[in-house]
Design goal:
With 530 residues, the protein is mainly beta. It has a single domain, classed as 8 Propeller (Methanol Dehydrogenase, Chain A), CATH 2.140.10. Helix content is 3%, strand content 38%. The chain is built from 2 helices and 38 strands. β13 and β14 form a beta hairpin. The radius of gyration is 22 Å and the shape is globular.
Length: 530
């Protein structure tokens, strides 16, 4: 939006927003666009790094809120806002979304759609963000639909159903736009669904392909499910993947098998649960997979973002995919072939004694759920859970958070009933040993930890690294913090008044760098004083 049009909108309180088209070239070059934030992970490699350096280690202590937008909507705000042409696009819980003026935070339009009262849900009603292409925004709704909105007005262009929510399907993922398609995952494994990754035509909403993350009869991998357990196999895909344009591969992580904590009804490795998938972007065909936790009975989803970097490993340059897994290990894979390169534990682990040369965990006996209870580390939430990670080419470090501590897993059985919880077993905290958390910086070429910043409770937000040598993150207690990205030294913090569950973004507007995050039910933009 040029300055004259922006000023006219401010003066006239216009409902529509004037903006340029976001084309495939803009998405491909998003890392070089300092004035925008165009996709969930900032670039296709999911770095969440910006070279902006106006706010740096020397002056970050002076930043303060430039504006605050109170949404008036309660729930878990886990959104990654998009920024384009003087406008910020924010999704919220319970099918809400807004367009905000970048200068003042003033609402330009508001979208909402009711959530069905009978929608089965595991974990609240969050939404993790928009995707954008042309003059359209794309978001999922809780009831497993994908909607295209006019970016200027918020009006619905089309809406399609991905699955029947009454069977336990729901959706919270931020879409990924690739080759004119809108790629989305799905949630619902806690209800015994059979999950997938979909690609839809951005113009029409027509589904172009679907990859089932639990293979059916006659498909490779179906033999890893005993009997007909594949029908209820889960393997949700509820966090956004990444994309390598040169290889034309989409990378996407999958979640737990069903039933979640009881392995007896599903003998076998249970492909492709708890796996990283590489799919042909044009067809959705599987090119390779890597399973992190075969036959999972601890809810160790592998949905966390796959980050693509070129790095030297064992003296050899590698096109790598790095991933902090919920099972307590940091992994590096070859992103062209799926070859296992290495794994290193980053938190307390008592269920595996290293990995085979192919990356299969070497199990320690006696760590599965039992009637009397089994102490297992990490606990049900991980290790690193779903929260967005960051890679800084400035420091060469990879940043992620971890829930540190153990839990006690109890064995149980449960019959499957469509649309109802299908977990089997349960877990409890360890008395007198509360779970804590940390933010870690890891050398992605070796898995060595460079620094660790302790948190008083399991983490709640994602990461943002910048060219100013900073790492931004938030806490459940409501603090938004800036750390020195090189050594983890705390440099600044602000009590926002609500849990910080969203990753921050940064951008330049009118020559000034802003850092923005959601906290509680508000969106807060920070900047240096003028």
């Amino acid at each position: 939006m040029n300055r004259q049009v922006w000023l006219a909108c401010i003066l006239l309180a216009c409902a529509a927003v004037a903006l340029g088209q976001v084309d495939a070239e803009a998405l491909a070059n998003s890392q070089q666009d300092d004035e925008s934030w165009l996709m969930y992970g900032r670039n296709y490699s999911a770095w969440r790094y910006s070279p902006l350096d106006e706010i740096d280690t020397g002056n970050v202590g002076r930043i303060a809120p430039a504006w605050i937008f109170q949404t008036g909507v309660s729930g878990k705000f886990q959104t990654t806002p998009l920024v384009r042409d003087g406008v910020m696009y924010v999704t919220g819980p319970s099918n809400h979304a807004w367009a905000l003026d970048l200068m003042t935070g003033r609402e330009l339009w508001h979208y909402s759609e009711p959530v069905p009262d009978d929608l089965p849900l595991c974990c609240g009603q969050p939404n993790r963000g928009f995707a954008i292409l042309g003059n359209r925004l794309f978001k999922v709704n809780m009831q497993a639909t994908l909607v295209a909105l006019d970016a200027a007005t918020g009006d619905v262009v089309w809406e399609v159903e991905s699955a029947d929510y009454r069977k336990g399907y729901s959706n919270t993922v931020a879409p990924l736009v690739v080759n004119g398609m809108v790629v989305v995952g799905i949630a619902g494994a806690e209800f015994g669904t059979r999950d997938f990754i979909d690609a839809y035509d951005a113009e029409t909403g027509e589904r172009r392909w679907r990859f089932r993350t639990v293979p059916g009869p006659g498909e490779p991998g179906n033999e890893t499910w005993g009997g007909d357990s594949w029908k209820r196999g889960g393997a949700s895909t509820w966090i956004t993947g990444s994309y390598d344009p040169e290889l034309n591969l989409i990378y996407w992580g999958t979640g737990n098998p069903g039933p979640d904590l009881d392995g007896a009804p599903r003998p076998g490795d249970n492909l492709y649960s708890d796996s990283m998938l590489a799919l042909d972007a044009d067809t959705g065909e599987l090119r390779w997979y890597f399973q992190f936790t075969p036959h999972d009975v601890h809810d160790w989803d592998a949905v966390a973002d796959p980050v693509l970097i070129d790095v030297e490993i064992d003296g050899q340059p590698r096109k790598a995919l790095v991933h902090a897994n919920r099972n307590g290990h940091f992994y590096a894979l070859d992103r062209a072939s799926g070859e296992f390169l290495f794994a290193r534990a980053y938190t307390e682990v008592n269920w595996a004694d290293g990995m085979t040369s192919a990356g299969r965990p070497i199990l320690i006996p006696g760590r599965t759920p039992t009637d009397e209870g089994t102490l297992t580390c990490p606990g049900m939430g991980g290790g690193h859970n779903w929260h967005a990670t960051s890679y800084s080419p400035q420091t060469g470090l990879y940043y992620f958070n971890s829930g540190d501590g153990c839990q006690i897993y109890h064995g149980a059985t449960q019959d499957f009933v469509e649309g109802e919880y299908y977990l089997g077993s349960a877990m409890e905290n360890v008395t007198g040993d509360p779970r804590e958390g940390s933010i870690l910086a890891v050398d992605p070429g070796t898995g060595d930890q460079r620094w660790r910043f302790a948190l008083v409770s399991p983490p709640s937000s994602g990461m943002l690294s910048t060219g100013g040598g900073l790492l931004f993150a938030g806490t459940q207690e409501g603090y938004f913090v800036a750390l020195d990205a090189t050594d983890g030294k705390p440099l600044w913090r602000l009590q926002t008044g609500g849990p910080v569950r969203a990753p921050a973004i940064t951008y330049r507007f009118e020559g000034r760098q802003y850092v923005t995050t959601a906290a509680g039910s508000a969106v807060i933009a920070f900047a240096l004083p003028r």
